[in-house]
Write the structure tokens for this entry.
Amino acid sequence: MIKSYLELNKNEKQALVEFLNKNNNNVTLENIEKEYKAEEFDYGKGVLISIKEKNIIGKLSIVLLECYLKNVAYIVRFEIDEKFKYNKEAILELKNEAIKLANSYGAFKIYLGTKNNEIINTLNLQKQYSAVKMILQDRKIKLSPFKLEKLTEENKNEYIKINNDAFYAVPNGGTLTKYKVNEYIKETNENNYYFIAKLNDVNIGFVQFHIENGVGEFDLGLIKIMQGKGYGKKLLETAIYFLNLKEVNDICLTVITKNKVAYEMYKKRGFKEIEILNDWFEL
């Protein structure tokens, strides 16, 4: 049986918490309520759970937001109880239900991100690209940084416009919504920063930072008309400069290897791969 998260009863939700904690993840019901009822999963409709004999044996989440906007869906956090006798059946059933749901939302393409070999082998998948984490080795600044303007209520619509223009054609690039940018504003603090990058007072891109346990991570993007002119390197230096000021121990980022321009730029700048977060497959 496959249920969406919204269809689970109280006992099933508690069983789901226990299933997710098999890997000592310290998951709570409060955690999953916040995560699964997020906008990108259509507030819980995009989280599918496999139940057999009252046991939770698998789950996955589908990013449905991009179905409306780009006709593409992304399946993430596909987890399975590999010791349960129905696990292969559950993998196939979850995959089929995910495809059916994504298609109903308008998806023409569906991608799955996972490192689980049983899922990969059961579905006979061929890797398309990876999401990798990289760490910077040479932190010496090469170019002067751009001026940065903090994200505020007053400029949030411009921030959304910049972000979505920069990421529209980027593999796995998510669409930023008003709901999400309002969350950014609320969570801005000494660990989370969001900026518009400016060239001669013209808004040309964005950069955002998250700092935790001495590690500074960032994401950035340039509007389309500014791409291919060397400004990406300068924006990258801006991010490094900011995190140097914050005196973080390490500077890291996550990149999709299919985004070859960004991937090669990071490698040339001295970023080295330290972890494959997910391999990505087209269903």
Remarks:
- The mean pLDDT is 95.
- The CA atoms of residues 216 and 251 lie 5 Å apart.
- The domain at 2-125 is CATH 3.40.630.30 (Aminopeptidase).
